[in-house]
Structures
1.
Amino acid sequence: MKTFAILNGPNLDRLGKREPEIYGRATLADLERALRAEFEARVRLEFFQSNHEGALIDRIAAWADAKVDGLVLNGGAFTHTSVALRDSLAGAKLPAVEVHLSNLYQREEFRHRSLTAPLCLGVITGLGFEGYHAAVRFLLQRG
Ligand code: DQA
C-alpha cells in the first residue's frame, strides 16, 4: 500500500477556533478523521503539523528519506515567506500538491505569492477540507 504524507504548517492546529469566518469550525482532528474515513482502505496516511519552520523541514526530509509516495502540503503563512521550506521541497523531490483552505486570491495581496507552489504538481485553494480530499484523490489516480 502507498503512503501519503499530509503536512500542515503554522496555526493550522488552531482550526475550529481560529478565524472561523475564514477557516470554518471544523478542527484539524476532524480533517484527519475525514481523510482516514475516505482513504484508509486505499492508502496509508501520515499526518504532521507544526508551528515551527525547522520542524516542518525536518519532517519533509524524513519523508523524502522514507520515500513516501506523495505529499499534501498546507504550509500556512510559510507558503508566502519561507525560502527554506521551498528548498526542502526542491530537495525532497516528492510528488506534492499544495492546498489552502481559503481562496488566497480573494485575500490580501501578500497571500497571492506562493514560494512553494512551483515545486508542486498543482495548487488547490479555497475549497476548504475538500481541497485535501481532492489532492489525495489526485495523487491516488496519478498512480
Ligand atoms: C492558509 C492560507 C495562508 O495564507 C494562511 O497564512 C494560513 C492558512 C489556508 O489554508 O487558507 O495559515 O494556508
Note: The chain has one domain: 3-142.
2.
Amino acid sequence: MMKKKTDRAPREAPPRKKFKKKGLILLYYGNGKGKTTAALGAALRAAGWGWKTAVVQFIKGAWKTGESAAAAGLLKQHITLAVMGDGFTWDTRHYEEDCRSAEKAWKKCREVLRDPAYQLVIWDEILYALKYRFLDVKDVVRELQKKPAGKHVILTGNYAPEALKAVADLVTEMRCRKHPFDSGILAQPGIDF
Ligand code: ATP
Ligand code: MG
C-alpha cells in the first residue's frame, strides 16, 4: 500500500544521510496543463548545470514552438529536440501510419537513452502513443528497466498505464481545475507553445 504524499516543510523531512542519488524515471500525466512545461523546465535547469538534454516529441510538428526555437538558438548547446510524429493524427484513422511514426519516434527514444552525451531525456507525449496502442507498454517498461543508471528520463502524456507508474520513481498527475480554453481563450506563444 503506497502512503499518501503531501507537501512537507524541509525540517519535517527524514535525515539527509538516509537518501541516495540515482537517475530517475519521472512521469507527468493527466488532463491538466503543465506536463510538457514541467519537462522543459527540467531541461532548463539541466542546461544550467552544463548538461545535455534530448527531447523526443511524439506529435505532429508542423507549427513552430518556443521550445524548438530555443533548441535551435539560445539553448543549442544544451537541448536537442527531435519532433518525430510526422504522421500522427491521434484520431486513429490511419492506424498503420501512426504505428510507423510511433515506431520511428520510439527508435529515437531508445537511441538517446543509450547515448552517453545526454544526462536527461524527455519522451514528450509518449503516453498518448501507449494509450492508442501505437507502442507496447511492455517494450517501454523493459527499456526503462535497463536504462543507464545515472540517466534521468521524463515521460509525459495524458494517460499512465499501471506498469509504467510502477517502474517510475516519481509520478505526478496534472489535474485540470480550470483552463482558459474553456473561456474561449486560445493557446498563446510563451505559455502554450
Ligand atoms: P503544456 O505543453 O502547456 O505544458 P501539456 O503538455 O500538459 O501542456 P498537452 O496534452 O500536451 O498538455 O496539451 C498541449 C496543449 O493543450 C497546450 O496548449 C495546453 O494549454 C492545452 N491543454 C492542456 N490541458 C488542457 C485542458 N485541460 N483543456 C484545454 N486545453 C488544454
Ligand atoms: Mg504536452
Note: The chain has a mean pLDDT of 91.
3.
Amino acid sequence: MAVSHVIEDERALIDAIREIAQERVAPRAAEIDHSGEFPWDMKELLAQQDILGMPFPVEYGGIGASELAIVMAIEELSRCCATTGLLLAVQQLGSLPIHLFGTHEQKQKYFPRLATGEWLAAFGLTEAGSGSDAAAMTTTAVRKGDKYILNGSKRFITNGGLAQVNSVFALTDPSKGTRGISAFIVEKDFPGFSVGRIEDKMGIKGSQTAELIFNDCEVPVENLLGREGDGFKLAMMTLDRTRPGIGAQAVGIAQGALDLAVGYSKQRVQFNKPIAENQGIQFMLADMATSVEAARLMVYNAAEMIDAGAKNFSKYSAMAKMFASDAAISVTNDAIQVLGGYGYMKEYPAERMMRDAKITQIYEGTNQIQRLVIARSLLTEL
Ligand code: COS
C-alpha cells in the first residue's frame, strides 16, 4: 500500500480505525444496506472512538487531525461500509464552512458538541433546480432586525433532518449573482425549519438524504458566516477541501471490492483449479489493484497539499475525486465479474459496493464539474 506521511500518532490512530472497521463496522454493512436505516450504532462507535472529532481543532474539543489522516480514516471505514465512512466525511463537510469563516464565538458554540459526535453536521447547498449550477439557487435570506428570515428549500442533503448544525447557503442579494450569496449556521430547531421528503436511494442506503425546508425560518444575525456575499466563495472553498474525502471513500470501496475478488478467486474452483490460476483473472486483479493504488496516491497527495497550505490544490483535489470515483466504479464492476453469478447476488457484498461507488461520481460535484474545475485551472495558470 502507498507510503503515507502521517505522523506516528496518526499512524497509530489509522491502524486502530482499520481494526475497528474490520471487527465492528464490516459485520453491520449488509444489514445497514438492507434496512436503509441510519446506523446510530455506527455513529456512536465513531463518536466514542474520537473519529468524529478528527476534523475539529484541539482547542474546541476535537483532535485536530491532519487532512491526510482524515482521508485515510474515511478510506478505512469505507473499505468495510461506505455509509459509515460517509459519517466522518459529512461531519467535516457540514462544519468546514464554520472552520473556514467562523468566528471564535461560533466555533466555541458549535464545535465541542460536533467533535464529540453529540451533534451531526450537514451542508445545505443543492436545491431542486440548482445542482451543478450552484449559483442558480433560489433560497433567500432577508435581514429583519437581529434576524435573517430564510425562505426556500434544499434538496439531497446528507444527514438532512438528523444534523443539528446545518451550513446553509442563501441569496441575500439576488441582483449580485454569486456575490449575493451568503452562508448561515442553521440549527435544526430554529423556528421555520422543517424536513421534507426523505429520498430512497440506489446506494449508501443507511445515510439519510433529505429535503430541508425554510418557511420564514429565523436565523440570528450572529449565525451569518463571514460577511454577506461571502457564501459562494465559502461553498467553493469548502468543496475544494472535502473532495479528497469523497475520493477516499471511493478508494475504500474499491479496496474492499478488490479484497473480495482476490479472496474469492483463490477459493472458487472451476475446471478443477482455483479461478485465480487463470491468467484472465490474474490480469483483471492486477489492473484493479493498480487503479486502486493510483487513486489512493492522488487522494493522499491532494490531502497533503491541503495540509501544506499549497496554493493550487483545487485542481488536484478535483482530479483525485474524479479519478478515484471512476476507479471505484470500474473496480467494483470487475469485482462482480470475477465473482460471476455470485457477484450479482445480494448474498455477496460486491453489488452493494458498486451501488455505493456510483454516488462518488456524482456528489460534491459531478465528475463533469471536476473536469471543468481542472480545465479552468489549467487554462488560467501562468
Ligand atoms: N475557491 C474560491 N473562490 C472560488 C472558487 C474556489 N474554488 N471557485 C470559484 N470561486 C469564486 C470565483 O473567483 C468568483 O469570484 P468573483 O466573483 O470574486 O470573481 C465566484 O466564485 C464565481 O465563480 P465562477 O464564475 O467560476 O462561478 P460559476 O457559477 O461559473 O460556477 C462551478 C463554478 C461550476 C465550479 C460551481 O458552480 C460548482 O462547483 N458547481 C458544483 C457544485 C457542487 O459541487 N455541488 C455539490 C454540492 S455538495 S453534495
Note: The pocket of coenzyme a persulfide is lined by residues 123, 125-126, 132-135, 178-179, 232-233, 236-237, 239-240, 314, 363-365, 369, 372-373 (CB under 6 Å).
4.
Amino acid sequence: MANLRTGVYPGTFDPVTNGHLDIISRCTRVVDRLIVAVAVNVGKAPLFTLEERVAMLEAEAAELKAVKGAIIEVAPFEGLLTEFVGNAGASLILRGLRAVSDFEYEFQMTGMNSQLAPDIETVFLTASGNHQFISSRLVKEICKLGGDITPFVSSGVKMRLTERLGQDGGGGYPQGVG
Ligand code: ADP
C-alpha cells in the first residue's frame, strides 16, 4: 500500500449520519485509502457501543465502496489520534466542518495535533447543502421525540435508532453529544 495516499477520518459516529457519509464520499476524492476511525469516546457517553458504531459504518461503507471503487476501511480506535494515524501509515487527518460552531474545537485540535505530529496534515471538508446541518445528537433527539429521521440517516441506521429510542420513550438514552 506504499503508493496509496492514506487518510484517517476520525469521529464518534454515534450513529453515522448522511452528513458523515457525504464527507466519507468526498474523502475518497482526496485519498486512495480511507480509514474511518471510530473513537471509543467514553466522554461523550455514546448511545451505541463501539462495536455497533463500527458495524453500522461498515454496512454503509460497503455500499459507498461499490459506488466509488475506493478503499474504505473502518477501524475502532482508542488513545492518541496522531499515533493511530502514524501506525496506519497515513499522513492526513480528514474532518468535516459544519457551522462556525465546529471551528474553534477543530482549530484547537488541529493545532495540538500538529505539535504532536508535524508531518500529519489536517484537511477539512464540507458536506453538500442539505447534509451540512445534520448532527448525530439532533438525529437522536428527533428520533426520541418521534420525528421522522428519514432525511438524515440510512434506512439501516434509522431502524437501529428506532429500536433503541422509539416507541418505549427511549429508555436509557444517555446525555451524549455529537
Ligand atoms: P466527533 O466526536 O469527533 O466530533 P462526530 O461523529 O460528531 O465525532 O463527527 C466526526 C466528524 O464529522 C467531525 O469532523 C464533524 O465535524 C464531522 N461531521 C459530522 N456531521 C457532519 C455534517 N453534517 N457535515 C459535515 N461534517 C460533519
Note: Confidence is low (pLDDT under 50) at residues 168-177.
